[in-house]
């Protein structure tokens, strides 16, 4: 799942078959990204650009978005990992 921060509006999209790559398109773990706490505080620092690639379930389309952080949602019965993106650059 990824969240896009456009003008403070949160848009959640379910993504399948996802993976992360660095600036040179080399596979990389999402754990190198800063972690966002429930209070919107970012923990960690990102030295390079990381991109999330995958299939957007609702539109049946491919995605390739820069990722800024990740967070863990525990509000449902099943925990969800969210990658946070921003289309503003």
UniProtKB/TrEMBL annotation:
Domain of life: Eukaryota
PANTHER family per UniProt: PHD FINGER-CONTAINING PROTEIN DDB_G0268158
Protein name: Uncharacterized protein
């Amino acid at each position: 799942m990824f969240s896009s921060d456009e003008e403070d509006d949160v848009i959640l999209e379910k993504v399948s078959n996802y993976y992360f790559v660095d600036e040179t398109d080399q596979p990389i773990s999402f754990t190198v990204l800063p972690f966002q706490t429930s209070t919107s505080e970012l923990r960690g620092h990102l030295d390079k650009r990381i991109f999330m690639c995958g299939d957007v379930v609702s539109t049946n389309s491919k995605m390739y978005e820069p990722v800024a952080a990740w967070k863990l949602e525990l509000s449902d019965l099943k925990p969800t990992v969210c990658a946070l993106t921003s289309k503003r650059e």
